[in-house]
Amino acid sequence: MDAKFFPQTAELLRFLPEIILTIAGTLLLVLEGFKKDEDSRSVISTLAAISIGLAMYGTVVAYDNPGMAFSNMLVSDGFAAFFRLVVLGVGLLTVLCSTSYLEREKSNSGEFYVLLLFSLAGQCLMAAANELIMVFIGLEVSSIASYILAGYIRDDKRGNESSLKYFLLGSFATAFLLYGVAWVYGMTGSTNLQEIRVALDKGVPSMTMVSAAVGLMLVGFAFKISAAPFQVWAPDVYQGAPAPVSGFLSAGPKAVAFAVMIRVFQTAFGSLMPKLEPVLWVMALATMTIGNFAAMWQNNIKRMLGYSSIAHAGYVLVAVTSNSATGTAAAMFYLAAYGMMNYGAFAIVTHVAGKGEEHVTLDHMKGLSQRQPAVAALLTVFLLSLIGVPLTAGFFGKFYIFKSAIDSHMYWLTALGLLNSAVAAYYYLRVLVVMYMHESESTEPVEAIPGGLKITMWLTAAMTLVLGVFPGLVLDFATKFAVLNK
Amino acid sequence: MNLLDILIAAPLLGFLITLMLPKGNAGLVKLFTLIFSIGVFAASLLLIGPVLERPAVMTWVTDAPWIGTPAIRYHVGMDGVSLWLVLLSTLLTPISILLSWKYIDHRVKEFFAFLLLLEFGLIGVFVAVDLFLFYVFWEVCLVPMYFLIGIWGHDRRIYAAVKFFLYTMVGSVLMLAAILYIYSKAGTFDYPALLLMMESGKFTMTHLEETLLFLAFFLAFAIKVPLFPLHTWLPDAHVEAPTAGSVMLAAVMLKMGTYGLLRFCLPMFPNASKENANWIVVLAITGIIFGALVALVQPNMKKLVAYSSVSHLGFVVLGLFSGNQWGLDGAVYVMLAHGISTGALFMLVGFLYERQHSLEIKDYGGVATPAPWLSTVFLVTTLASIGMPMLNNFVGEFLVLQGASQINIWWAVFAATGVILSACYMLWMYQRTFFGETPDSVKHHMHDLGAREWACIVPLLVLMVWMGIAAQSFLPSIGASNKTIIDRTALQTKSTTTHAEVSNHGR
């Protein structure tokens, strides 16, 4: 297709979510300058939520106009729409949780929402990227905003540490990715996924170089999804970042990094997947095992959820390893379900942690079931879902993943992965134990739950249970969209 | 939507309603759950008639699609075996509620709500005939029991609750892997469809596949039974659980494991069941003798009864893997009888604990003097438990021993020592607790059975006697169900009994 100076309307529609988010972010940045006093800033969070809602609508419009855009740099397909909706959903929950959080921490300002919108724009771009340079741009837009969000509470030491660590290691990872992209370009003469595939089929000067390039890109992705052995940043970052941001980082960017990984490997490097399988196999098992065994010793709940998010990345890697349409669908379902239940858990941590996030250890959860029975019950739903008990979304997530693994004849990985999930039950149960089986030590009065947080908790819990009984609501879409344009 | 569907849904509904009742009003919560669960029990009695007409086939079947991909169906039904286990669950739930009337004094609402949730899971487990659905109910049972032990238990309750959860979880995830493997081969979770495919040769397994799948299922069930040497969670869970938890655990939950062996392991993997029968039976007999010997030296009553469960459940496994009609019928009969008599024993130990606040045998003595009725009831239950003729356990254990002796006389000889040992430990405990000098503290605290306690124990006493003298009320339906399993598996080839004798038995 010839490059045209003016893009066609349909191309713009395929790019609509990103357009909406970018314009809304820029406008809010300007608007913030006019709102000097703190109180009137609440309008910004409302506007941010509306923009995300509009971007969701934009996603639907983009889905209704399937096809490539901007000289095949972007693709608007069901797969892209699915992940755009997942990250936008997570973004919406983040806005709902952050308003009261930022007020509590006396850091209420518009930039937070602006950064969030930019980060979402980058993530939506990643979901639709059909080109390695686009992947890189989306990743950078998303990451740079996320680095700042992680250290948003400026006078908090842990937040600063988290932000710096995330920034340094993230840049490192992106460099690996970019290096890999450069090698791929050198070998195939293209950064477009379909063209790379064609070039590989025709034959390239050195397959070794291509394999090395794929290896470099895998390192970059592994950092982003916190897969072993590149997982070390995750617990520190999730522990130090503001709780709503930790929830955001563990759900949104991670989901979309998986999306990119699946799309790139299956579209461009499909022929290399059999070679890659043993590597992914080991990586999946190592990620699950390291995440679960490290989580067992944590007393800080945010840190525990950080390690648990590593373990969950391992489960999704099992689905990626299976390299099939059912595997992709299982990964999509899992990432959507995980986004919900994990965000729900972080929303509760946000509430329980209290001012300055001082109450984030297991000891602070003692007797929560008596002080705040509803909160404890909701957290129970999320934890049971993270364990993978039936009638929750998490159970079907694991079920579909391990089913796809069995379909791909990975019996050992299935057995070891399922045993891993039994190990994981131990540390989630520890939280249930302190909430329900210990007496409360705190005499502080119970804080009321702010409206946004309340909506987040109940909404995510309800969705976790509904998907636990009717997984088809999401899985049918995932199955439909899992077949990627080769 | 038939009566069985309503019965499955009702406890879940009751659970939700209970959660919504006002927190402060404990009396209302107790009354509601009691009346509700009695209603469920009464309704469950209506199930009996149609099942008894044709016990060999599934009655009250509902088969509706639940999830499209993969094809998971809500497929339930009951035959002559599941009928009695469902009734056991619905009977013991109101009894457990009544039992906890005074004992539970904090977080009353949650306690009674969890009992109803447990009932939901238990009924589901015994009627699900879709492998996936079965797994769902199997796991659902885990959660309420975990909380029952962990919140309302004794001192080491947390350790016991977590151990209980993790043990079961490890077994069940391997079962899930096996279920997924079967689906990937056969393309269905539907159990009757699966059996039809196996009969017609559409679904075949290699020897290795069958062995591994069998072991995956077997491990999950063996942990739940619990079979020696996987039993270590059981004494902890029993000792720490509140009385109602112990009753439900011993009487019904352990049967989930043996029911799973009977319903799924034997028919699906007939060759593996036969090949592995020898070492499994050795473990079962070891469990019978080991459980009995350990029970003999227990200073703690609840632990003693818990180890006696290990011993009794060994009989069930022995019967199941004898693989003939007597063995299977006896196994199911012991399951029911053990549910009644051990449930009653835990209840009576609970009554003693409520009076004296001790589970140690040495803190008691001469209880018969201040509490003659309690002692009488305890004696009847003790005799039932040790397999006294005319009482319930005798029938089952006799059939199991007869079935085992058909295969290998030494199995029966060794297993029979368990019966003798059970008389030793139970009667010795009875003697030390109820006879002899009455210490002052016992005199002071011990009063006889109250009306509520009578109401709890009488139904079980009636059943002990009924099952002991009128086994024919239960055996024909159990036998007919088991016969379909035996016919299908041709497991009895080793047995010297002719087919005619087998099918005549129990009619």
What does this structure look like?
- The complex is a heterodimer of chains A (486) and B (507).
- By secondary structure, chain A is mostly helical.
- Chain A has one domain (9-481).
- Chain A is built from 20 helices and 2 strands.
- Chain A has helices spanning 9-14, 16-34, 42-64, 78-104, 111-128, 132-150, 157-188, 193-202, 207-224, 233-240, 243-268, 273-295, 301-322, 325-353, 368-371, 373-387, 393-407, 411-437, 451-469, 472-481, and strands at 67-69, 74-76.
- Chain B is globular, with a radius of gyration of 22 Å.
- In chain B, strand 1 and strand 2 form a beta hairpin.
- Chain B starts with a helix and ends with a helix.
- Chain B has one domain (3-504).
- In chain B, helix 12 (270-296) packs antiparallel against helix 13.
- Chain B contains 21 helices and 2 strands.
- The longest helix of chain B has 32 residues, at 325-356.
- Chain B has helices spanning 3-20, 26-45, 48-53, 80-99, 108-127, 131-152, 157-186, 191-199, 207-224, 233-240, 243-268, 270-296, 301-322, 325-356, 372-385, 392-407, 409-434, 440-445, 451-469, 475-489, 499-504, and strands at 59-67, 72-78.
- Chain B has a two-stranded antiparallel ribbon.
- Chain B is mainly alpha-helical.
For this entry, give a set of tags.
heterodimer, A: 486 residues, mainly alpha, two-stranded antiparallel sheet, B: 507 residues, 21 helices, 75% helix, disordered C terminus
